[in-house]
LacI family transcriptional regulator (Sphaerotilus natans subsp. natans DSM 6575), 710 residues
Amino acid sequence: MSLPPAAPESDPPGPGTQTRPGRLQMADIARIAGVSVATVSRALNGSTEVSAATRQRITELARSLNYTINISAKNLRLRHNRTVAVVIPYDRQTRLHVSDPFFLSMLGSLADALTDRGYDMLVSRIDADQLENASLSYDSGTALGIILIGQWHSHDQLNRLADQGVPLVVWGAQLPQQRYCSVGGDNLGGGRLATRHLIERGCRRFVFLGDPTTPESALRLRGHQHELAEAGLEPEACRVLAVGFDAARARTEVGRLLEQGVDFDAVVACSDVLATAVVPVLRLHGREVPRDVAVVGYDDIEWASHADPPLTTVRQPVARAGIEMVEALLERVAGRDAPPRTLPVELVVRQSSMR
Amino acid sequence: MSLPPAAPESDPPGPGTQTRPGRLQMADIARIAGVSVATVSRALNGSTEVSAATRQRITELARSLNYTINISAKNLRLRHNRTVAVVIPYDRQTRLHVSDPFFLSMLGSLADALTDRGYDMLVSRIDADQLENASLSYDSGTALGIILIGQWHSHDQLNRLADQGVPLVVWGAQLPQQRYCSVGGDNLGGGRLATRHLIERGCRRFVFLGDPTTPESALRLRGHQHELAEAGLEPEACRVLAVGFDAARARTEVGRLLEQGVDFDAVVACSDVLATAVVPVLRLHGREVPRDVAVVGYDDIEWASHADPPLTTVRQPVARAGIEMVEALLERVAGRDAPPRTLPVELVVRQSSMR
DNA sequence: ATGAAAGCGCTAACAT
DNA sequence: ATGTTAGCGCTTTCAT
């Protein structure tokens, strides 16, 4: 047989997960180049200890043979890890969370931020009711830290993870008694911006769409109520519809409200999806947007500007968010403290509120 | 969405990347338990060779000490790898592709399919013009194979990758001379379904929105033209607007058409985003949807049913797609042949076409 | 400038 | 049932 000398014992290449057999390794390159593995290693890592000539020769040889290094071995030896786990919670019932374009675009933003810094992004989904499992890929040594997109109702579990020393960054609101690092938009400010704008446009009777049991929506609602009070409006000026992030449910609830003859002239939604979903229902009941009812969304997903009418919304700085979360995580991994970060949001005025 | 990734910095091997020091390892557990590492290994892996008593004792000890195994070491030893790389191309100019909800939901579907099978999903973004770089994480030994979401214009590069032996599955059209495995919707059939339906609704003058230079759109267009011919219509009955996947551009082009006085009674779009984006422009020019112009989209993203009017569209089986791609990839990884797969699509009729 | 050799944390023969 | 031992593929002293 013309196998390479010192051929490994016949290792029956098992099913699926086996590393491809006969894969070139450093020893092969070394043998072919007539040098030692040490030299190959140094050459491939651009060490100046090898002569420029051999370095080039080896580099080219490796390239031409399509050799690539084994990361597991390298990581083991170096005790390194450059993988970050990004965990996306999903709602067991609706599964809606992850299909919301906002969270998906956050994923893109994180992918960019991590790629730029030379980190790998490992994505996993997890039941939103069991966020304590989020640390799995950290525990198993696969990832050096966890970025969680959405804190939901899991404040306590997340605190527990942090207490266990899991490097953890969560997209969400900054809460009291918080021992993990959160990065989030300025929800209070966002709620205020949207509401103030609507009040300025003459709106007086509001419908609030969201999930006030989650910290983010709760803060937005507080911002909303704050502005109401500031304008001298009664709290009853706002009717809160707890529809979660479920567009279908938002339509049903708003439809019911209209059938009941409840009157309102503004909708404040906790996502652009909710906001745009509700427009056709309003039309169906003879309410023109923005003439009769002004609508403001949240997130400024790409879609918002193409909606009909183009949607006024509170823009969350997605690209910035990815960068901030990654930076915060790397701080935590380095053992340094990473204070929560609140990112500024911005009102983008389009037609849906211009009455 | 986020900014295009800057050129990856030559990684500053900052502190952050070091495996946490003082991390427990098997030897520690062994010492504390008063057994050998081999026994610990066996116990933790549930081998029946260790007595049930010690197995339980060790398992509990490890748990209580918060010990977790080092995956790199395990993988190295086992010559295993359970990581699949999912690569999302982005268009350097528009960056629209990846922000299209369809591709993002595909990501979710893949995450599910991989998680179910115990594989990790590594996500990276890559310039659509340089798909040959898609194999990076395979080359580096990080991933056992590559799933690429979208083939774009890169047929040749993909063939080259396949020739190099990279286990590769691509979401896209099945092409002649194809040496990689593709999984895709039935684009020809989808184009036919949409068109036949519109013809049945009495439409005779069509606008086709898409990027006919990509295989997928090209097939849909062929399906479209096929049905036109079948119905005895001239090829001129269809005006093709090559707008890519760019919603803004679609609006501009359709607006221009209307201003030129070009008349048409149907729009066939290659994505739901394009289809819904165009509706407001039609309205602006006094065309009611569906009364004056019927509109059909493609993909059936969640959003489609909430659009105004609810969008008739060709549904792509996203959940199925994730499963099929993963299965095909595992076949390739196992060294077996994986023929291209074409998944059935389905017309979902909603209001936008009911005239 | 290059090589020999040790060992990263784990698993699996092969003992016992 | 448990321990001993030999590596997995790499990097890095320490020699030469």
Summary: Residues 35-39, 42, 49-51, 54, 73, 75-79, 141 of chain B lie near DNA strand D (CB under 10 Å from a C1'). Chain B touches chain A through 78 residues (CB under 8 Å). Chain B has a mean pLDDT of 88. The longest strand of chain B covers residues 83-90.
